[in-house]
Design goal:
about 210 residues
Length: about 210
């Protein structure tokens, strides 16, 4: 396929799966939405994350990600913006744990918010920029054909695997949360999600 060997593609897909099951901001965001609002919200959040990763892959193909990763100031600004965003989400989630009526009032547009927040969470994760720049080119072979086409293929496979894993996680978490839908469990889930968001934001800020 585009000159890439079966062994190269198999190794690439195996590496992606390992990376996808490693907890990070994107995974936690999908799980948080699924546990708070149900399977549908988790899947919509996964679509938002995938959309953000599509932007990263496009940036790699266009060379923009290399420019960003080469600028310490710009990279730091993105890192701090991402950390602040996750912490703000954590604070809002904690507040909603004590105000279930306000959460219900927003239920009509929560899918749209889940998608947008998933998109922003992924875009503001500078580690995804570095990952895209450092990881994708390792599997490109100049002698195997058009390198741009190879990057597009590898990027598309990455997004597809990420989407599949996140949707599966969202569906599973949503079903589990549905069985624990009492007010007490709902508040506990919200608190856990809030702590996770803040912790990820602090890790991103100090990483």
């Amino acid at each position: 396929m585009l000159g890439l060997s079966t062994a190269t593609l198999a190794g690439y897909l195996a590496a992606i799966v390992v990376l996808m099951v490693t907890p990070g901001p994107d995974m936690m965001f999908v799980l948080a939405n699924a546990t708070r609002y149900g399977t549908r919200a988790g899947m919509v959040a996964a679509l938002g994350v995938a959309a953000g990763e599509t932007v990263h892959v496009t940036a790699v193909v266009g060379g923009l990600a290399t420019v960003i990763s080469a600028s310490p100031l710009l990279f730091t600004a993105i890192r701090w913006a991402g950390a602040a965003y996750l912490i703000i989400l954590g604070v809002r989630t904690l507040r909603s744990a004590h105000n279930s009526s306000a959460t219900a009032a927003r239920s009509d547009d929560r899918d749209g918010r889940a998608f947008l927040r998933g998109l922003v969470t992924n875009l503001l994760n500078p580690k995804m920029i570095l990952f895209s720049v450092a990881f994708l080119p390792q599997f490109v072979h100049p002698g195997a054909g058009n390198t741009t086409a190879q990057l597009i293929l590898l990027g598309a496979l990455f997004v597809a695997v990420q989407l599949a894993v996140d949707i599966a996680l969202g569906a599973g978490a949503g079903r589990l949360a549905g069985r624990l839908a009492s007010g007490r469990w709902s508040r506990r889930i919200n608190r856990v999600c809030a702590v996770a968001f803040v912790a990820l934001g602090l890790r991103l800020a100090t990483g």
